[in-house]
Amino acid sequence: MLQGGPAARPVPREKAMAAVTESTELSLQHLIDPEICIRCNTCEEACPVDAITHDSRNYVVDFNICEGCNACISPCPTGAIDNWRRVSSAQPYTLEEQLSWDTLPAKTEPAVTAEAELPAEVARLTAEASAGQGGPVSPPWSAAHPYVNLYSLQNPAIATVAGNFPLTDENASADIRHIILDFGNTAFPVLEGQSIGVIPPGIDENGKPRHVRLYSVASPRNGERPGYNNLSLTVKRVTHDHEGNPVPGVCSHYLCDLKKGDQLKVVGPYGTSFLMPNHPGSSIMMICTGTGSAPMRAMTERRRRRIALNEGGELMLFFGARRPGELPYFGPLMKLPKTFLDINLAFSRVPDTPKQYVQDLIRERGTDVTRLLKDENCYIYVCGLKGMEDGVKEAFRDVCATHGMDWNSVYPALLANSRLHVETY
Ligand code: FAD
Ligand code: A2P
Q1: pLDDT given at position 90
Q2: Whose CA is nearest to atom 26 of ligand 1?
Q3: Residue whose CA is closest, atom 22 of ligand 2?
Q4: Beta strand residue intervals within 223-341, DSSP E
Q5: What gap in Å lies between CA 358 and CA 343, rounded to an integer?
Q6: C-alpha 304: how far from its chain's center?
Q7: Ligand 2 neighbour 382 (Cβ under 6 A)
Q8: Which residue has the CA at smallest separation from atom 13 of ligand 1?
Q9: How many A from CA of 158 to the centre of ligand 1?
Q10: Range list for CATH 2.40.30.10 in the chain
Q11: Element containing residue 214 per DSSP (H, E)
Q12: pLDDT reported for residue 25
């Protein structure tokens, strides 16, 4: 079997890569994985500049023609098209080399995907969101392949609002909405745990186009309504900044005020880390407050739709809100069978009831929490208020201590094994 990459091409590439580390200009080279490609010709048809060709063996991308427009990425049914290697601009893989491969070249640099070219503001927002664990960790080994960055600020997808429903009651301190976006004939593949970007219309106070805001997808990969090309978001209308000063949040007001039939500009999808495990028997522990429930709703719904497959594993949820009327998806949550989802709701402002945070319930459920911490097939997700990160970690530290475990060694092991994922904002 032919091997692609440095091993099969010893001297010149190694020389080139050595030069790369010194001064040579680097480029991302777009490649097609010959092991996954089903040779359906979709990419060649989709390419607007004829950069993709094939012979009887392989489909290949001409480095000198490809403009990286990503038009071929979303139509590809297998994901074989979404492969990138950082190479010396002076010495990319040639067509001849690519046509000879049975496998892609090994990565000589850290993993590179289209996400490496994220818009700067998106890269900043996603880095801040995962800062609580020191940056994004690898996804679970069994996570599905995520598509990222298919639609750019220059080339956004246009979505149509298919519905906009309140999730909180009329007395709630916040207006949180379930917003369904329909993508019509535009492919917009997402996985549970990914986010999309919304570009609010108009200009900011400096006369520049408004910057993109990120929203977690709240529906599973096959859509809010399976078979329809749609997804849902859980959006809170921001009326105060984190210090409590009144702020009419630009994008959240824009989204919450959208009516059925309105159109909006969407970019992304984004996120290659906060993804759910797919292997049978895998368990998920979810810890969230407020709109941090969006990715948890997506994961739970994915599992709910697959109940009949009896794939095993547990779902445990810790969900914090001021009171039941402020808790997104409260009604549907309460209808899910206890055997399917172990629900732990923490309310902080119910009259005549002691204030509870998610971390209090993690301590109360210490026996089950430590059992799942020990279970290598259990993956943990934390999403919502930035302020909850420290409290949640302290709660884990405490339950570990009372159950004979040492959080100082459990925590790095969770990160190293892609078992703990944090997204807070
Ligand atoms: P702006 O006009 O940008 O002003 C907001 C001001 O209020 C800022 O000073 C900000 O610091 C402060 N503020 C107060 N509360 C919040 C808050 N909850 N979020 C952000 N800023 C706040 N929001 C959702 O409603 N649902 C989601 O699923 C969601 N997912 C996100 C996923 C990621 C990875 C990230 C980084 C953010 C996510 N957000 C989500 C927050 C969202 O991107 C916006 O920041 C939020 O809607 C405020 O934008 P705005 O334009 O309305 O406010
Ligand atoms: P609190 O009543 O003390 O604000 P919000 O409604 O502001 O989005 O918050 C959602 C829930 O998260 C509320 O119950 C809120 O409680 C709670 N919360 C606030 N700070 C923290 C924290 N540091 N850790 C965990 N939960 C928190």
Answers
A1: 84
A2: 235
A3: 388
A4: 230-236, 263-270, 283-289, 315-321
A5: 11
A6: 19
A7: no
A8: 241
A9: 21
A10: 113-270
A11: strand 213-216
A12: 64
In the prediction, which pLDDT does 384 show? 97
Which of 205, 238, 286 to mutate for ligand 1's pocket (most ligand atoms within 8 Å of CB)?
A: 238
The model's pLDDT over 397-413, given as tens digits with 9 standing for 90+, comes to: 999 999 999 999 999 99
Instruction: Give the domain 283-424 fold.
Output: Rossmann fold (3.40.50)
Whole-number Å distance, alpha carbon 82 to ligand 2 midpoint, is 40
For atom 15 of ligand 1, the residue with the nearest CA is 241
Residue type (1 letter), 395: A
Q: Is 374 left (phi over 0), alpha (psi -120 to 50) or beta?
A: alpha
pLDDT band at 109 (very low <50, low <70, confident <90, very high): very low
Contact status, residue 85 vs residue 112, Cβ threshold 8 Å: yes
3-state helix, strand, coil in the chain (%, to 5): 30, 25, 50
Give the tens place of pLDDT for each residue, 192-251: 999 999 999 999 999 999 999 999 999 999 999 998 999 999 999 999 999 999 999 999
Homologous superfamily of 113-270:
Translation factors (2.40.30.10)
More confident residue, 368 or 29: 368
